[in-house]
């Protein structure tokens, strides 16, 4: 019972748990956040008294972005970068409002994580702090070309305005919940840009199904796993409050992928698990990490386990980690980003610069 003691307002941090009353919005004071950090968050949003948004020709409207620079950031050095992709039904405000950012800052100070630049774009369709808006999943969909915005505008903006290492092994993605779908999909398909990816409680196999009675709601078993071959708008995607609330597929699929007979093929082309077989991904080419709660309301734990199992059949390693007793909740996302950062820190090229001493001969 204890794991269900989550304030109703906090449930908006679930991917699509409902309308948002706890969105941080303009209540997040960026000066207060920066006062707590040894690094610094730069503001390219409309959230703090002035409009500093990036104009996006691809999306045809201004877009919000936060950029974190680590303690001691020095433009004479070159740093790795992480694109931080938020979960559904909140926007970029959650990057500032989470204590995970302060913990990252402390990890860098303690040497547990290399200094890294982190960029958090807005992934909601409207871009107007409307937290009930559908999540783009950071892919090109009905509401706009968000993947193109991410790789063609956000990443180039960060590399132009900050000192970023150019190598793909210095570029990573961290995706939370719905942000992890696009994050893993983009990382697999754009290995020319990214060398590592980590997800937390994410739909990395949206075509997960099982031959047993509960189908896609079953725990993962290699013996009964099967691919979902059709789209059912009435399928129950998530269960909350002991089954009193059930979220249906149409709410999340149709704003991004549509509702026609082509939906299954569109999903197949972007689904990370399918991409293990439809791309030329080689073992060791991309560092991949999936973290999940053992009691995930969306059964994303089963999706992560099936994704790793399918990858292993191709000789590709996916590192897994879990919080066995946690559900898809604000507490889960607050508590478990550190492991993802540590994983990425081990697989990113470190900062470089003129301060590095030449090795002795």
From TrEMBL:
It comes from Tautonia plasticadhaerens. The lineage of its organism: Bacteria, Pseudomonadati, Planctomycetota, Planctomycetia, Isosphaerales. Residues 1-22 form the signal peptide. GO terms for molecular function: acyltransferase activity, transferring groups other than amino-acyl groups; endo-1,4-beta-xylanase activity. Pfam families: Esterase. InterPro entries: AB_hydrolase_fold, Esterase-like, Mycobacterial_A85_antigen. It comes from the Bacteria. This is Endo-1,4-beta-xylanase Z. The keyword Signal applies. One of its GO terms (biological process) is xylan catabolic process. Keywords: Carbohydrate metabolism, Glycosidase, Hydrolase, Polysaccharide degradation, Signal, Xylan degradation.
